[in-house]
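Chapter review: from sequence to fold.
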Amino acid sequence: MDKVPVIKIENFSLEINNKKLLKNINLEIAQNEIFLIYGPRNSGKSLLLRSIVDLNNELFRNIRNSGAILFQGESIENLEGQYLRSQISYCEPTFIENINFLTLSEILNLALGLKASDITKEQFIILERLNLSHIFADINTLKLYEHFDKWTIGDKISFIIFLNIARNPQVFIFDSILDHLDDFLLNDIKEFLYETKKDKTLIISTRNIRLFSDIAEKIGFIVDGELLFTGKIQDFMLSFPG
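The token string follows.
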């Protein structure tokens, strides 16, 4: 029996300033699945993924769309924005720089309503899996890493992942942000994310299919706003070798 789609996109198109940038997208993403959105730069990956959480309207003027995007069978147009984004987390590379404008204490409070001293045992285990436990080990290291100029890019990405995991959404969207990890940390993160899909759905966009073909089950290949392929990774590799 096929898995029930947690996200279903039906004949979805998007225009900005009368230019059609997404063209009749049809896509289903199942529960407990890792789904890749793959394509070159400016192919429409981010526009599509932001559409799922209704973010494009906040970034662009003169935007129009047609078709439907459903979350658990309900049109996202009928869902309150705060609820939608509590159930579907979205992060992308600008988050890496944006956290530099705040302190660790401020972000923990804003994102999770927590102080560092309030982090639970379960949350600390997640931090360990994401190679961040050294930062949260004691008061001295917390003070040292209070400002993000002390953090590596990998640490920042791991922390952004932690914030998303800790909010406990149903769906995680990683929009090209994981492409910025070095090979060693990426392998650790992939192992952790693969375990996470036991009770979550993960959508990962990338320009490098080889990074994630070992953990993803299905793929959507998008070029110039048009979805050219959807299906199993293995079938894509046969259809589009190289």
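Two observations follow directly from the output. The chain has one domain: 5-239. The chain has ten helices and ten strands.
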